[in-house]
Amino acid sequence: MLDKKTRMSEQPSGERIKNFNEVALGYNEEEAILEASRCLQCKKPRCVEGCPVNIDIPAFIAKIKEKDYMGAINKIKEKNNLPAICGRVCPQETQCEELCVVGKKHDPVGIGRLERFASDWELSHDHDLPKIELPKKHIKVAVIGSGPAGLTAAGDLAKMGYEVTIFEAFHLSGGVLVYGIPEFRLPKAIVGSEVEYIKKLGVNMETNTIIGKTVTLDDLRGEGFKAFFIGTGAGSPMFMRIPGENLGGVYSANEFLTRINLMKAYMFPNCDTPVKVGKRVAVIGAGNVAIDSARTSLRLGAEEVTIVYRRSAEEMPARHEEVEHAKEEGVKFMFLTNPIEVLGDENMRVKGMRCLKMTLGEPDDSGRRRPIPMPGSEFEMEIDTYVVAIGQTPNPLVQGTTPGLEVQKWGGITTKDDSGQTSLGDVWAGGDIVTGAATVISAMGAGKKAAKAIDEFLSK
Questions:
Q1: Which residues are CB-neighbours of 114 under 8 A, at least 6 positions away?
Q2: What's the pTM value of the predicted model, to 2 decimals?
Q3: Lesser CB count within 10 Å: N end or C end of the chain?
Q4: pLDDT beneath 50: ranges in the chain
């Protein structure tokens, strides 16, 4: 057995920073079979325990090894409605692959890469696939938000026979998958294909519909909807609340990435939305959103991009793979540093920032060591653009227009248990709107649990 994962081809770093094409290129058939042969087919597969949607991982890998790619994707789709997305952006290294038995002595099996292979095979053979026929229960269910939680809940409910309608505020379905994750990590054509699959299950998509403005949950109850799932995510930006954050050239990562991804600023002037980054960009934070913002800035023409993080490299929450890609592309990292002021010129545009050096103390509530300012360590650095990527909070619109819906102190919706049931008997919620910003696959797991609970509720 091979000790190392089968290598996946990538665009060379010197080429990819000049375009927005996908960086990782996926396995070919020979590579997929080689990697599938590394799986031990454990009788008690711990990898399945690490998957938030409980895919039968050994079974689909065995199908790939047998060259039964249709069987592989069918096995995955028993539990996962969005495999082409998960194969690209899920943190398998801290979930299924972390528990892989092969990983005790060697590299774990490349489960995510194999999932991507199977789903990409399906997308390339879509014209050969049979029409999906499902039972009909003639009971209406509304899903608010078309991100990973909403798409998963809607797909599962449709498979159970419900008449599902997704209500999406934006003009495109996909939520964070289309506005938050850059094209070079998750091509929007892939998201579009996965959304089309959900539509083929019979789900109706109502875009440009803002729940709380266009209609309310009470309005929808009047239209005959019997249950609701809220998966509106956490899309409102957070700032550091330091002087100078109102200057021109300051972005929240949310706005920055939405302009570039959803509004296609990376295609300017062929699209109407420009984003100017200047020569020097500072991105504050070290999660996946920060890494995405930094790598995007390079592709927009920035000469120097620096991740500024108040903790050390060991505490970075971003995926290791994304950090390594950023380093290869030339992103710089400034650790144990915290901005205290954004500096502006006479035209009220960013020209620099003032920072403090930090040291690490005892662990805080997150389990990471708390950053403590070092007295007398102030310094300034010149920048043209300042991007804040320290997290997001929920938009309060749905919560504020739904009487009786209990919310948490930070604005997220309160749920009673893992099923996602809220204080209202016919309403469930899941994903970032409940947990705060988390992973795509954890949101999908919440959508799956809620769909099961909604089915039990409506079946009584």
A1: 27, 32, 35, 36, 60, 61, 64, 87
A2: 0.93
A3: C
A4: none
